[in-house]
Amino acid sequence: MKRIISSVIAAILIASSIPMSAQTTSSAAGSSDRFARSNQYWMTYAGKLPIGSTVRVRTTDGARITAVLAVVDDSGITLEPKTRIPERPVHVPYEKLDQLSLKENGSNVAKAVGIGLAVGVGSFLGLIAILASAWD
After folding, report:
1. How far apart are the first and last CA of the chain?
2. Each residue of 69-96: pLDDT tens digit?
3. What is the number of domains present in the chain?
4. Does the pTM exceed 0.85?
5. Is residue 20 situated within a structural domain?
6. Which domain holds residue 116?
7. Which of the 8 DSSP states describes residue 30?
8. I need a surface site. Which of 49, 80, 90, 117 has the fewest CB within 10 A?
9. pLDDT for residue 31
10. How far from the centroid of its chain's Cα atoms is residue 55's Cα?
Protein backbone atom coordinates (compact mmCIF):
# COMPACT_ATOMS: atom_id res chain seq x y z
CA MET A 1 0.00 0.00 0.00
CA LYS A 2 2.84 2.38 0.89
CA ARG A 3 4.54 1.61 -2.40
CA ILE A 4 1.38 2.47 -4.37
CA ILE A 5 0.87 5.76 -2.54
CA SER A 6 4.53 6.69 -2.98
CA SER A 7 4.35 5.84 -6.69
CA VAL A 8 1.20 7.95 -7.16
CA ILE A 9 2.73 10.93 -5.35
CA ALA A 10 5.96 10.59 -7.32
CA ALA A 11 3.95 10.53 -10.56
CA ILE A 12 2.08 13.66 -9.47
CA LEU A 13 5.35 15.42 -8.69
CA ILE A 14 6.79 14.52 -12.06
CA ALA A 15 3.60 15.54 -13.88
CA SER A 16 3.48 18.88 -12.06
CA SER A 17 6.91 19.79 -13.39
CA ILE A 18 5.73 19.39 -16.99
CA PRO A 19 3.95 22.49 -18.40
CA MET A 20 0.23 21.93 -18.64
CA SER A 21 -0.23 23.96 -21.79
CA ALA A 22 2.38 24.83 -24.32
CA GLN A 23 1.28 28.24 -25.47
CA THR A 24 3.32 29.68 -28.25
CA THR A 25 3.08 33.12 -29.62
CA SER A 26 3.36 32.82 -33.33
CA SER A 27 2.22 34.90 -36.18
CA ALA A 28 -0.79 32.69 -36.81
CA ALA A 29 -2.46 35.62 -38.44
CA GLY A 30 0.20 35.56 -41.11
CA SER A 31 0.60 38.20 -43.73
CA SER A 32 -3.02 37.88 -44.91
CA ASP A 33 -4.36 39.65 -41.81
CA ARG A 34 -1.73 42.37 -41.84
CA PHE A 35 -2.77 45.70 -43.09
CA ALA A 36 -0.63 48.58 -44.22
CA ARG A 37 -0.51 51.56 -41.90
CA SER A 38 0.13 55.03 -43.21
CA ASN A 39 3.36 56.93 -42.72
CA GLN A 40 1.42 59.45 -40.64
CA TYR A 41 0.33 56.68 -38.27
CA TRP A 42 3.92 55.50 -37.72
CA MET A 43 5.20 59.08 -37.39
CA THR A 44 2.61 59.86 -34.69
CA TYR A 45 3.16 56.57 -32.85
CA ALA A 46 6.96 56.76 -32.94
CA GLY A 47 6.86 60.41 -31.89
CA LYS A 48 5.09 59.42 -28.65
CA LEU A 49 7.72 56.82 -27.70
CA PRO A 50 10.45 58.09 -25.38
CA ILE A 51 13.86 58.48 -27.01
CA GLY A 52 16.30 55.98 -25.49
CA SER A 53 13.66 53.31 -24.89
CA THR A 54 14.14 49.75 -26.08
CA VAL A 55 11.83 48.85 -28.96
CA ARG A 56 11.07 45.80 -31.07
CA VAL A 57 10.79 46.45 -34.78
CA ARG A 58 9.64 44.19 -37.59
CA THR A 59 10.05 45.44 -41.14
CA THR A 60 7.98 44.58 -44.19
CA ASP A 61 10.78 42.35 -45.50
CA GLY A 62 10.58 40.22 -42.30
CA ALA A 63 13.67 41.50 -40.47
CA ARG A 64 13.31 41.76 -36.68
CA ILE A 65 15.37 44.20 -34.65
CA THR A 66 15.56 44.85 -30.93
CA ALA A 67 17.13 48.27 -30.58
CA VAL A 68 17.26 51.56 -28.73
CA LEU A 69 15.18 54.33 -30.29
CA ALA A 70 17.59 57.14 -31.15
CA VAL A 71 15.90 59.56 -33.57
CA VAL A 72 12.36 60.08 -34.85
CA ASP A 73 12.11 62.35 -37.89
CA ASP A 74 9.86 62.93 -40.91
CA SER A 75 11.44 60.17 -43.01
CA GLY A 76 11.62 57.35 -40.46
CA ILE A 77 13.20 56.21 -37.23
CA THR A 78 16.86 55.67 -36.40
CA LEU A 79 17.68 52.72 -34.18
CA GLU A 80 20.81 51.64 -32.35
CA PRO A 81 20.70 47.81 -32.44
CA LYS A 82 21.20 46.03 -29.10
CA THR A 83 23.86 43.54 -30.05
CA ARG A 84 26.87 42.08 -28.30
CA ILE A 85 29.19 43.69 -30.86
CA PRO A 86 28.36 47.38 -31.47
CA GLU A 87 26.77 48.11 -34.83
CA ARG A 88 26.08 51.30 -36.70
CA PRO A 89 22.70 52.96 -36.19
CA VAL A 90 20.03 51.78 -38.64
CA HIS A 91 17.55 54.14 -40.30
CA VAL A 92 14.18 52.49 -40.97
CA PRO A 93 11.80 54.49 -43.20
CA TYR A 94 8.12 54.49 -42.23
CA GLU A 95 7.26 52.65 -45.47
CA LYS A 96 9.32 49.65 -44.27
CA LEU A 97 7.74 49.43 -40.78
CA ASP A 98 5.41 46.53 -40.18
CA GLN A 99 5.45 46.54 -36.35
CA LEU A 100 6.91 48.85 -33.72
CA SER A 101 6.43 48.14 -30.03
CA LEU A 102 7.97 49.11 -26.74
CA LYS A 103 9.88 46.21 -25.19
CA GLU A 104 8.90 45.39 -21.64
CA ASN A 105 11.11 43.69 -19.08
CA GLY A 106 9.02 40.48 -19.18
CA SER A 107 8.16 40.46 -15.49
CA ASN A 108 4.65 40.91 -14.18
CA VAL A 109 2.53 40.09 -11.16
CA ALA A 110 0.73 37.12 -12.73
CA LYS A 111 4.03 35.48 -13.60
CA ALA A 112 5.33 35.94 -10.05
CA VAL A 113 2.10 34.54 -8.56
CA GLY A 114 2.25 31.53 -10.89
CA ILE A 115 5.84 30.76 -9.95
CA GLY A 116 5.06 31.13 -6.24
CA LEU A 117 2.02 28.88 -6.55
CA ALA A 118 4.00 26.21 -8.41
CA VAL A 119 6.76 26.26 -5.79
CA GLY A 120 4.20 26.03 -2.97
CA VAL A 121 2.32 23.13 -4.54
CA GLY A 122 5.57 21.31 -5.32
CA SER A 123 6.79 21.75 -1.74
CA PHE A 124 3.46 20.53 -0.35
CA LEU A 125 3.45 17.45 -2.57
CA GLY A 126 7.09 16.76 -1.69
CA LEU A 127 6.23 16.92 2.02
CA ILE A 128 3.31 14.54 1.50
CA ALA A 129 5.59 12.13 -0.40
CA ILE A 130 8.10 12.18 2.45
CA LEU A 131 5.36 11.58 5.02
CA ALA A 132 3.85 8.77 2.94
CA SER A 133 7.17 7.00 2.60
CA ALA A 134 7.82 7.26 6.36
CA TRP A 135 4.31 6.12 7.28
CA ASP A 136 4.17 2.66 8.76
Report:
1. 10
2. 999 999 999 999 988 898 999 999 999 9
3. 2
4. no
5. no
6. 107-136
7. T
8. 117
9. 44
10. 13
